[in-house]
Fold this sequence. Notes:
By secondary structure, this protein is an alpha+beta fold.
Amino acid sequence: MTTFDWHILRRFAAATGLLLTLLIVFFVVLDYVEYIDDFLDRGATLGQVFGTYYLHYIPEIVKLTSPLAVFLAAIYTTARLSQSMQLTALTMAGVSLYRVLVPFAVAGALVTILMLGFNGFVVPSANAVVLDFQNRYYREAPRNAETSDLYRQTAPGSVLAVGFFDPGLNRAFRVSLLDFAADTTDGLAHPERLVQRVDAATMTWDDTLEAWTLDEAIRYRFAPDGLPERDTLAAFDTTLAIRPRDLARTERDAERLTILEARDYVISLRRAGASRLGRPLVEYYGKFTYPLANLILVLVGVPLAARRRRGGQAIQLALGLFVAFVYLALQKVIEPFGYAESVPPFVASWLPHVVFAVVAAVLIWRAPK
């Protein structure tokens, strides 16, 4: 890294930090103005609002705004170099735009790696506090819990299937407990097979015992070969690693899951043969793809701002805002198609980033060298 590289990195980091701070303040003020009546009506104190809610809301704001911040920082830093004729001087000295792009690309890659870990592990734990606060103090709390056709992994190799769950009674209906194990009867590796299944008409939560009771249960044991053994049980108590709140999940529960938890959740749904996997799959893939926007937008911003234009930096920033808006809007437009599985969830998650990666490559190729 040369002195000029460090000069670019310092300017880029300072601009990114300033823009990110301004965006955080803007989002907090905007959210507070919108929900101040809810906070006052529901009895939330200023200490709770700013010390709990907004303190834990900041990671989500950083996640959402970091691509815009690094993009505008790249636009601003490159435009300053262009307007001050420093890029022209470098070009005349035989330094190509590709070489000038190196420190920006390094910075974008570092931000992408950091945000991958930040989005995957820090943001979900903070979002759990935010969502609980919203459920308590928002007038129109974002609940919308899914209560039908539920599938949950209770342990490795064990899946709980519920036809309907009543959160008010803490009672589940049309319940099946499925246990899988690896088939090693012939000494070879085979896919897991079903070894036991317990079906029950209802399953009720006991707060005292902190356990579930299955009523009118029928247990089937499946041998590697031969007919299953059947037992009828009047009542069957089980201590599953599942609480009532885990069955009353909402569409926003993916925001609470880390990358590893989201992976296990998707695996459990697939193993149990669950339908409507579009939303959890899009959310899971998004934990990997969204951080890439930081790098891609940097690679778009530098060649976009390298050319001097009439109007100076104001035009550069306005053009940059438009490009960033199109990029982020494309992600939001295609996501619902992935949720409905009209478009494969993997494609819905990756397509906007692939499109703008191609745009970045074209802009770099056509930029003045």
